[in-house]
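As a point of orientation, let us examine one representative protein, giving the amino acid sequence and backbone structure tokens.
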Amino acid sequence: QVQLVESGGGLVQAGGSLRLSCAASGRTFSSYRMGWFRQAPGKEREFVARFGWTGGSTYYADSVKGRFTISRDNAKNTVYLQMSSLKPEDTAVYYCAAKPASAIGFRIDDYAYWGQGTQVTVSS
């Protein structure tokens, strides 16, 4: 299994930037594929960004494409979400999640391990 610790959330004005970090420990980082999700109050949790099967390709939700970038530092066992040109609609709790690399699928319920979440609030 893997443990995830998130940081970097906060309050930012529209048009600003934030960088979220997710530090992983427990098992080797290469055994998992990482992703970012978010959930606003009263709404379903939704996909934001992830790595693909090989760990090299990246995928983004249409709502964040061109503004958010997922990256990682394998030596530090850390994954990042760089968020730019933030909009009030981006306000949500952001979660880092991990899926075993050998598992099939990239749906939300395929991600077995989740961080505690970090609040991102974007003011107009």
In short: The chain is about 0% helix and 50% strand. The chain has a mean pLDDT of 93. The first strand starts at residue 3 and ends at 7.
